[in-house]
Amino acid sequence: MFPEIVVDLAAVRHNVRALREHTGVASMTVVKADGYGHGMVEVARAAREAGSEWIGVATLDEALALRSAGDRGRLLCWLTFPGADWAAAIDADVDVTAYTVAELDEIAATGRPARVQLKIDTGLSRGGATRDSWPAVVERAKQGERDGSWRITGIWSHFAASDEPDHPANDAQEQAFLEALELADGLDPEVRHLANSAAGILRPSSRFDLVRFGLASYGLDPAPGHTPDLGLVPAMTVRAPLALAKPIPAGAGVSYGHTWVADTPTTVGLVPIGYAEGVLRSASNAARVLVDGKQRAVRGRICMDQFVVDLGGDLPDPGTEVVLFGRGAHGEPTAQDWAEVAGTISYEIVTRIGGRLPRRYVDA
């Protein structure tokens, strides 16, 4: 075997169906950042097959790449910048997002009838129209509908703390979104959407017409400690062959800086991937992997191309499978396990992994 990322597209389809059934509204499967590291084109295709009505991406380049790969369903893009190629997106039948009157003017200047969604900032203080600028954005949107520049297909916003169900920002943002919808009287969007994965699962009042499912589509928990068991299945497994196993004596230091020193004789194994493949260096001396049916601790610093694990006296053959993370069904760690020891979130674990690792798709 060779080091690889294995992505189970059947798991993606299962997750999309389970999430749609749980919410009872339309879904948008978010495939930005190359499908959260799972493969944008392949995940989008699987999500369409499972009935997802919309696909969501961040950048225009991502949207155009999907269209070039043959995707033909409803597709929303939301992250642009001055001088963006609006015309290319409109010609490719992409729904684009506007935050400002200036962006709407740029869209109108293409001379192409567009499908546009308006984003209101309800408290994330990131993208979206401010409360003060919203009336002018709405008025310009109405004007553009009257003169045929576009059709306003959606109004939306994004939560800041939906993974913390009791956070006061959630109620405040939902109320702000309702007020923005009231101020948009006279527009008749196809979809109003606020909820991401955590809110879609945990906050029924925020579902409106559509839920944008990102992380949960990949089978990962968007709100650890709060999410009910929906039977979601992690779609990604990262594995590599054991390159070497050997004994070391007590007192031997392992890897750069000797941040771990063996206090008794033991055996160690060499895993031939490292931070160049997105294995987080911050997980040094903390993460665990599955080798020969047992969880083994990472010892010493994770290097650019390799890391070392403590085999506890065992000497498995070179070529033995090492599973960094996967579903967790066979004793292997999960992406969430790696996130916890690295002081991050599972989003970062799966989106960073890659580098020289090829992806292999299965339908298990």
Structure description:
By secondary structure, the protein is an alpha/beta fold. It has 2 domains: 9-218, Alpha-Beta Barrel (TIM Barrel); 236-362, Lyase, Ornithine Decarboxylase, Chain A, domain 1 (Beta Barrel). 29% of the residues lie in helices and 24% in strands. The chain has a 9-stranded mixed β-sheet with strand order 11-14-17-16-15-18-10-1-19. Strands 4-3-2-9 form a 4-stranded parallel β-sheet. Strands 5-6-7-8 form a 4-stranded parallel β-sheet. Helix 1 packs across helix 3 (40-49). The radius of gyration is 23 Å and the shape is elongated.
How would you describe this structure in keywords?
four-stranded parallel β-sheet; 364 residues; alpha/beta; TIM Barrel; nine-stranded mixed β-sheet
Overall geometry: elongated
> Any idea of the CATH class of the largest domain?
Alpha Beta
Total of DSSP H or I helical runs spanning 4+ residues:
11
Q: In what range is the share of β-strand residues? A: 15-25%
Low-confidence stretches: none
Per CATH, the superfamily of the largest domain is Alanine racemase
Q: The biggest beta sheet, please?
A: 9 strands, mixed
Fraction of residues in H or I helices: 25-40%
Q: How many discrete domains?
A: 2
CATH topology of the largest domain: TIM Barrel
- Summed over residues and divided by their number, the pLDDT gives a mean of 98
Multimeric state = single chain
Work out the radius of gyration. Answer: 23 Å
Summarize the helix and strand pattern as letters. Answer: EHEHHEHEHEHEHEHEHEEEEEEEEEEHHE
Q: Whole-Å distance between the termini?
A: 19 Å
